[in-house]
Amino acid sequence: MMEPMARFLQWRPRLRRALVVGAASLAAAQLGTSTTVWAVDSLRKRREPPGGEFPRTKPRTVSVAGSDLTVYTYGEHVYTAMLEAIRGARDYIFFETFIWKDDAVGQLFKDELIAAARRGVSVYVIFDSFGNLVVPRAFKRFPDVVHVLRFPLLRPGILMLDLRKSGRDHRKIVVVDGEVGFVGGYNIGSLYATQWRDTHMRIEGPAVWELDNAFVDFWNDHRSSSQPELPDRGARSWDSHILAARNSPSSLLYPVRGLYINALDRARSHALLTQAYFIPDAELLAAMLAAAKRGVRVQVLIPAVSNHVLADWVARSYYTRLLRAGVELWLYQGAMVHAKTATIDSRWTTIGTANLDRLSMQGNFEINIEVYDRDLAEVMEEIFDVDMSNASRLTLEEWESRPRYVRIAEELLHPMRWMF
């Protein structure tokens, strides 16, 4: 009788070939499925150009711990407020964005920042190179009077798989004179001004330090030796009602993820989440399922079709577990909802730049503001109700009746979740 080791050695070449063929077949199936999904979506976009018509809410302001917080859900409104602040700057402007389009809106922001610098305001600008790959080089050039940090496409060390050199700068921050600041999901561009449903927050008062400090730390960590170092100012006051959570791959710190998990673990009544790309990791998923199991009404608002169709299909592979557990999924219609917000139990709110996906939770530089305040939570609940009027609920019965070929595509694309 052949010894087990000898038998294994005999079959090892065949096993290796089988594994290689299997892996290649899976990769080919995933590539084919991805290509098909992308092609169908491209045809859909040509047939159905974005209309941008969706219910709007007016900016609402509440006072929290000595700071005024204003919530915006329409691009033109927040851009107007940002430009007004930039035009009124006396001392300095911090401006950071992931995407900055070279269109009418993008040019207006560029012109106003340059004008501010020429009248003596210290202007510091950060933008991500990957997020602006398709933007012409000429648009990304500024006069020397503006201090510009172009966050690099590749940083030394990433090819050696150094996690501290990974991640994109996905943050969107504006700070003027340390007195007013803005943060949220809005990038800069004409498309976002009227056709996308997003959420941004304006902060006026002591809590602006949360954004000011975040920009200063990032600038000083990533500036070149020829660029000025920004002064590191301590907080004028301490208050736990308004705090910033900053994901920083350079420090291997990802507190935004913990922020969500902690809030969901505490939930007793309801949790309202609005997300552009909804691909939760195992722990985030478990926190949502556990909340629903103990009777919390968990409602998640996501785009019916986002601008990243592959992310949509990867997300679909989570729907069965969520729906069977009682989590409600609501699909926003007619426009891209790009907001990254949540409010829980009418007392806790977060607004920021991080999506519930791997790239945001464990990859990119992100910032979310966390606020403990019933008045702000009430505003966010009213906004959620307005958004729900433009959404349709996905029921378990409807979901489980989807065709078999759709289920196969979802399973094939599920392993791609690490990309998003």
> Gap between N and C termini, in Å?
51 Å
Indicate the proportion of strand residues. Answer: 15-25%
> Radius of gyration over alpha carbons?
23 Å
Taking strands numbered 1, 2, ... along the chain, how are they ordered across the largest sheet? 1-2-9-7-6-3-4-5
In percent, how helical is the residue content? Answer: 25-40%
Summed up, the helix count is 13
* Main sheet properties: 8 strands, mixed
Q: Please, what is the average pLDDT?
A: 89
Brief overview, please?
The protein has 420 residues and is an alpha/beta fold.
Structure explained in plain terms:
The protein has 420 residues and is of the alpha/beta class. Helices cover 39% and strands 22% of the residues. The protein has 13 helices and 18 strands. An 8-stranded mixed β-sheet has the order 1-2-9-7-6-3-4-5, with helices on both faces. It has an 8-stranded mixed β-sheet with strand order 10-17-16-15-11-12-13-18, with helices on both faces. The protein starts with a helix and ends in a 7-residue tail after the last helix. The relative contact order is 0.14.
